[in-house]
């Protein structure tokens, strides 16, 4: 088998060079003029599982759109459309200090609102007593009339 028989392989002794596929900015390809901070589904593609903004070398965005993308993500986080940290990071804490032998922190319990006992005012207390006294007096007057 000679070198001519193997056209897809590099020549002996030579090392093949890895040439990565050139990444094209998806915003330039779609001709997007503004990146909308309200489109959280699209922005989520550019955030890592740790909640960090992905770098240009990984996403392939151009410098202009990377700056606009970072501003849109920061704005969406500020008005609570997107989380600052993903859910599993919030539960586990810092990965550097995470020990698999230790149990996960329990989720914090929400404080229940205190219900203060109802304090009756004098007006509320006096009204039922007046009605209670008026009823026996009416019965007494009826019995006096019938006799």
Structure description:
This is Small ribosomal subunit protein bS18. It is a single chain. With 147 residues, the protein is mainly α. It has a domain at 22-98: 30s Ribosomal Protein S18 (Irregular), CATH 4.10.640. The chain has helices at 26-29, 40-44, 56-59, 63-78, 87-92, 122-146.
Could you list some keywords that capture this structure?
147 residues; mainly alpha; 30s Ribosomal Protein S18; 6 helices; elongated
CATH class of the domain at 22-98: Few Secondary Structures
| CATH superfamily annotation of the domain at 22-98 | Ribosomal protein S18
CATH architecture of the domain at 22-98: Irregular
Order of helices and strands: HHHHHH
How much helix, percentage-wise, in residues? 40-55%
**For the terminal residues, how far apart are their CA atoms?**
136 Å
Q: Sum up the overall morphology in one term.
A: elongated
Number of strands: 0
Radius of gyration: 37 Å
- Mean model confidence by pLDDT: 77
CATH topology (level 3) name of the domain at 22-98:
30s Ribosomal Protein S18
Biggest sheet features: none
Question: What is the gist of this entry?
Answer:
Keywords: Ribonucleoprotein, Ribosomal protein, RNA-binding, rRNA-binding. This protein has 147 residues and is an all-alpha fold.
Write the layout of secondary structure elements.
Layout: H1 26-29, H2 40-44, H3 56-59, H4 63-78, H5 87-92, H6 122-146
């Amino acid at each position: 088998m000679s070198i001519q028989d193997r056209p897809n392989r590099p020549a002996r002794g030579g090392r093949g060079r890895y040439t990565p596929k050139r990444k094209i900015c998806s915003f330039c390809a779609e001709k997007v003029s503004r990146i909308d901070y309200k489109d959280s589904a699209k922005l989520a593609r550019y955030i890592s599982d740790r909640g960090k903004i992905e770098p240009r070398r990984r996403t392939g965005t151009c410098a202009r759109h990377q700056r606009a993308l970072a501003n849109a993500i920061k704005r969406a986080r500020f008005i609570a459309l997107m989380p600052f940290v993903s859910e599993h990071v919030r539960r586990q804490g810092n990965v550097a200090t995470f020990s698999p032998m230790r149990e996960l922190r329990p989720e914090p319990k929400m404080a229940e609102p205190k219900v203060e006992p109802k304090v009756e005012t004098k007006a509320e207390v006096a009204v039922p007593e007046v009605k209670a006294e008026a009823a026996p007096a009416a019965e007494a007057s009826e019995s006096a009339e019938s006799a």
